[in-house]
Amino acid sequence: MMRFRHLITVVAISALVVAACSSDSGAEPGDVLFDVELIEVKGATDGIPAPDVDPTSLSQGYGYKAPGDYDAENPAKFQVATYMFAPGAMTVAKGDSVTLRMFGVNGDEHLIFVQAPDGSTVVDAFTANRGREYSVSFDADQAGHYKLICTTHGPTMTADIFSTG
To answer: Measuring CA to CA, which of 22, 39, 48, 88 is 20 to 30 A from 106?
Structure first.
């Protein structure tokens, strides 16, 4: 009997979640603010062999310090890095006025722009520097996939802004 009640509870909660996620609220477009950090993630190891290919040859967004270059006292240790926006994915409703408040944590310079689903530019390219905050805004007047792009560290330093509706 207890298992049956538990099953009924789980099914009921699942139904409520599905209904809430799929309902059309009919909400008017509004103002949306995202805080976005420009970061570099690094990792080092001596537990596996170094990559056969220098990662910096694959993307401007990758960093690499080879064995011997990274840690003179541990010649087998190497480091890899990548630049990214955090968060890397955001969702807005079609018609929302979107503001991205960005803070440069890593990387001295980033050349950034925002591209609309149709490929047009909705935020012109600007330079963002470490330790500074920047705010840019655009209207999500198209449904689809907007892209926040750093050309300095591309093609890997991008974030996705999905416009629904």
So the answer is: 48
